[in-house]
Design a protein that fits this description.
Length: 120
Amino acid sequence: MTRELFLLAFPVRRSRSTVPRRVRRRRFPPAVGRGAFQKRALRESRILSTQLQHALTSRIHIEQAKGFLVHQADISLDDAFRLLRGYSRRTSRRLVEVAHDVVTKQLPVTDLTRYDPDDD
């Protein structure tokens, strides 16, 4: 946060000589400045919360699919991820979509295991 935004959002009584001239020109009532700042901060925190929730959900699907592949194909976690990633790249699909299809058994494990993980 820049000093100017901070001063606009949280006015502090100071002598005029310590406040930059450009800040002095933009005088807003304290409630208006604070309200706009809080509104923007709330909107940004909601966006961040939505992004983090989506990332967590995606990660859960991928981890479940890796575990499923480890169990079904008797491979390591790294190889399971390589299989998922390779299939995702070959079919131009998002990794989380492929993982979801593996977990819900819409995508047979044999389709993934035909891919050699060393070809990456």
